[in-house]
Amino acid sequence: MSRIIGVEQSLTNVEDALKAKGYEVIQLRTEEDAKKCDACVITGQDRDIMGISDPVLAGPVIDANGLSADEVLQRVDKYFH
To answer: How many Å separate Cα 26 from the centre of its chain?
Structure first.
């Protein structure tokens, strides 16, 4: 079963890395988008605006601020494997 990872629109390099690894990726625009995801990757800047700081999903919320796309991918992989 493919894991659904929500990614903020500005993180295209992370989105590409996740897709290349086989994850299903959707762009986070609203809290409803986050509810569909097994994990979310955010920049940290919009955490409260997006409503993702509230427990809207059971999976992790990964703050990509200061991380490379590979580092984010490693964190996602570690959580699911």
So the answer is: 9
